[in-house]
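lol forgot to send this yesterday, sorry. struct tokens for the thing we talked abt
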């Protein structure tokens, strides 16, 4: 959908990367919520036409302030977007204020630190990501779309269907070393022989550079004689129903930026076992909504998963707790309100 009048746009959320990423997903989910109370537009490739958006032909309009008289905010989430914002505000003298959201769980490189120091405000998506920043910042954690990610409704499938076993444990996301897919597979090879009611499902894209990694995992599963109990489903058209079908979700990443999958699972009423990568440890309440283990610790992962396979009622109870926790703490509207507070602080400075 086109923005009818740039004079009403006070915030621009650029997406200057064609390939789908976590940042793209954040923009797609968050902008419609922000648009309920704010003049906001996106710009860039790879975004659905349903979002309010401006075109490159609208850029000259940025030399004029919006109807409100407040300077527009350019909300960057990548280095290239910070560079573009600085070019427009410093070189082209457009009346823009620059906000940057950082999800990185590492020390930034020199050029990134230089860019961040030139922002008018900085948001960290978790306390952990904020600990790597060297500038004042505000923590605003990501939220989740509670309409899109929800428990199963009446008549919806919640079981394995044509899969072996009666209950499913899942691991979703790109199949690669960073995501810890191998740790999940190894834990399942160890555990599933003891729990014949359970089947493991793995969904997600295998990109060419990780094809060898994925094939090695498939061979390991076949060698263990568990080809019907550990299933690689590939990239599914819609992962949301799978969150509702699994009784336990496992997020074994070795490193993450933020990592939304545990929130997606908990919003679907599913208990979660996760590593402490990204912001996972700030999402999960150990012993109530799931468990958290050290990233990369395969032995600890198996130990954390085992109680749920041994006691399916524990998985159900923690799934119910997880749903209540996400609804109270991580609605998308709360994230939008937190970001709006940052915008208002920028506007208050003129």
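and heres what i got for the seq, position by position
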């Amino acid at each position: 959908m086109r923005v009818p009048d740039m004079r009403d746009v006070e915030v621009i959320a650029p997406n200057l990367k064609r390939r789908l990423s976590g940042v793209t997903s954040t923009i797609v989910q968050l902008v419609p919520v922000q648009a309920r109370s704010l003049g906001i537009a996106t710009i860039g490739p790879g975004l659905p036409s349903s979002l309010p958006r401006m075109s490159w032909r609208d850029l000259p309009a940025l030399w004029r302030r919006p109807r409100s008289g407040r300077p527009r905010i350019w909300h960057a989430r990548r280095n290239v977007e910070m560079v573009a914002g600085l070019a427009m505000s410093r070189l082209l003298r457009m009346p823009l204020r620059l906000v940057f959201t950082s999800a990185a769980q590492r020390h930034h490189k020199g050029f990134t630190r230089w860019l961040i120091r030139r922002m008018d405000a900085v948001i960290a998506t978790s306390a952990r990501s904020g600990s790597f920043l060297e500038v004042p910042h505000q923590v605003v954690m990501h939220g989740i779309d509670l309409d899109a990610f929800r428990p199963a409704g009446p008549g919806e499938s919640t079981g394995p269907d044509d899969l072996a076993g009666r209950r499913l444990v899942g691991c979703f996301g790109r199949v690669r070393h960073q995501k810890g897919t191998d740790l999940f597979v190894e834990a399942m090879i160890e555990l599933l022989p003891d729990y014949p009611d359970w089947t493991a499902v793995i969904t997600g894209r295998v990109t060419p550079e990780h094809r060898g990694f994925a094939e090695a995992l498939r061979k390991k599963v076949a060698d263990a004689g568990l080809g019907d109990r550990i299933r690689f489903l590939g990239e599914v058209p819609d992962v949301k129903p799978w969150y509702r079908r699994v009784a336990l979700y496992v997020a074994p990443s070795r490193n993450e930026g933020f990592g939304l999958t545990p929130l997606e699972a908990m919003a679907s009423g599913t208990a979660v076992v996760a590593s402490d990568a990204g912001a996972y440890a700030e999402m999960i309440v150990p012993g109530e909504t799931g468990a958290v283990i050290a990233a990369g610790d395969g032995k600890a992962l198996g130990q954390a998963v085992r109680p749920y396979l041994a006691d399916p009622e524990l998985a159900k109870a923690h799934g119910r707790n997880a749903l209540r926790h996400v609804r109270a703490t991580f609605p998308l509207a709360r994230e939008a309100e937190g970001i709006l507070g940052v915008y208002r602080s920028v506007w208050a400075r003129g």
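Residues 22 and 155 are 31 Å apart (CA to CA). anyway ping me if u want another try
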